[in-house]
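Serine--pyruvate aminotransferase (Imhoffiella purpurea), 435 aa
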Amino acid sequence: MGRHLYSPVHREIRANPADSCCRQRRVRIATTDRLPEGRIMIRSFNPPVRTLMGPGPADVHPRVLAALARPTIGHLDPAFVTMMDELKELLRLAFRTRNALTMPVSAPGSAGMETCFVNLVEPGDEVVVCINGVFGGRMKENVERAGGIPIVVQGTWGRAVDPDQVEETLEAHPSARLLAFVQAETSTGACSDAKTLAEIARRHDCLTIVDAVTSLGGSPLEVDAWGLDAVYSGSQKCLSCTPGLAPVTFGERALEKVRNRKTRVQSWFLDLNLVMGYWSGEQKRSYHHTAPVNALYALHESLVMLAEEGIEATWERHAHHHRALRAGLEALGLELIVPEEERLPQLNSVSVPGGIDEAQVRSRLLQHYDLELGVGLGDLAGKVWRIGLMGYSSRPANILLCVGALANELAALGHRTDAGAALEAVRAELDRNAP
């Protein structure tokens, strides 16, 4: 008889103590005649505890983490279907809409983006796409992949979309029937005027597709009042939830276009004509896919918390904490790249001082403080840090930690700072007009 896959002879070693993810963890090593000597029998993963102040994911609230651990039931169970209906109503509250088709796509925010484009864009459609950062560029690629013709309104990184440019472009392309733009550009921290852009689109008989991945739950978003047609977001930012779900909402004008398509939607999984049978069935839900049951528990809990706080109070909390962070950063001599009137409160792009290696600072913050900041993307790579104050990450303790840690690490690298003055500036702003 041959030996078993793993030899009964084992030896144990301790993991490298320098590995912060595995401190005091024992790793078992097995030898065998079928596997290379030294094969590791992998144990349960225990992640380090971090403070997440980058562009996402954000810190997840303990109530949301607890919801993930609730018993899994079937995705067509009557109790789960009841929860689905509650979830839709809670998302309507967050989006400020009465749209019947308001639901979470069972995938991350990028799938929310694709859901909008594959359903609303047909081959040959002209789509005006506003690009003022990375995610406007992704909208353009989605148009191309759906067979549409993108007409680009090229903006400036770190600035809002220019409504005058949009008006001129739509006047020059009267056959365009869609306008796509990012309300909250995560790559820069710029906030565009979604209300004004939607008004321009309506004047030109265009539907709007709006990226609200970073804005939902963090800054004003009024789907119905502003006349937005299709909006997508993500669960992992200002909703204090885990990554992996993409809330979307479609107005009646958008659904009419979906129903009247001349061609079949290129994606089976994201085809709204099929998905609606699962999320919008009045009597019996049709089977479409196995929903991520526990992840939906988590989103439900995060939205219950949003309702408890109140959506407008949530917006004000993010704005108040942004003002405190800004005060501390300015006291350190740091500058935010986005003009104040166009700035997102929940995502702050900060210029890296001359002579400082931004990656070294982020590495030291992670090593010494378990604090994560975001890297610059695209045109801003190596030039900025992106500091997030999203959802559960938007707390006074996090602001004080971030400002104090930045002051210490910049000083260690030769940049002159006054940590005491910066922290005092934060505290003073936190005490001023606290919500």
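The chain has three domains: 10-41, 62-308, 311-431. The chain is about 40% helix and 15% strand. ok done for today
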